[in-house]
Amino acid sequence: MTSYDGTLPLDGKVALVTGGSRGIGAATAVRLARAGADVAVTYVNGKEAAADAVRAVSSLGRRGVALRADSSDAGEAAGAVERTAEALGGLDVLVNNVGVGVLGPLASLSPDEVDRVLAVNVRGVFLASQAAAARMPEGGRIITIGTCMTQRVPGPGGTLYAMSKSALVGLTKALARELGSVGITANIVHPGPIDTDMNPADGPYAAGQVAMTALGRFGTVEEVAAMVVHLAGASYVTGAEFSVDGGHAA
């Protein structure tokens, strides 16, 4: 029997959380810091919220940095990885959290909306993952935030969003195969209805979402973050999908 030496599971690791200024991203950044990691977060418009996330990371005795990076821009999506490595001395964990949701009837979706959603939700994630894979040492982790709508689309209006997030399932499985030989894992987490500013548990569409879950409630950002941080420390899990959806897909 060995005694606990006080070492945290992610001591000495550097993590990047894209879209980490609020919601699931901010909760993940804080939980990564609590596990011992130094953390960078990206933001586009939420400068003050990103600063709050960094202060929360710093309050735990870890280094934090906020980087403005627009994932719809190909250079900035990949550049956030390089800037994180420069600021914090490397990169061990990438959390592809940034995403945009455009919902509406199929006929109403414009080409510009299609291009924007695919640029952020698919191309930006691909380019960040590509840049991270080139930087990460053995033991690197790529964790992507998907959606429960990749497994069950409960009603109309979700074609564009569900398509973009479903692409990330294929990306994750392919990354796992390609990067397994160098010891880098890739996994995807599918949140269900989660209480955030964009989808509050007391919002106008909440009752219908709750009814679709087995647990009869919204999830919390901390519950999603807990799964992400678990995967950041897991060494024999790759190419897998994990639902944090209260039974939405059951």
TrEMBL record:
Superkingdom per UniProt: Bacteria
Coiled-coil regions listed: none
Pfam families: adh_short_C2
Family: Belongs to the short-chain dehydrogenases/reductases (SDR) family.
Name of the molecule in the record: SDR family oxidoreductase
Residue ranges annotated for the Ketoreductase domain, each copy included: 13-197
InterPro entries xrefs: KR_dom, NAD(P)-bd_dom_sf, SDR_fam
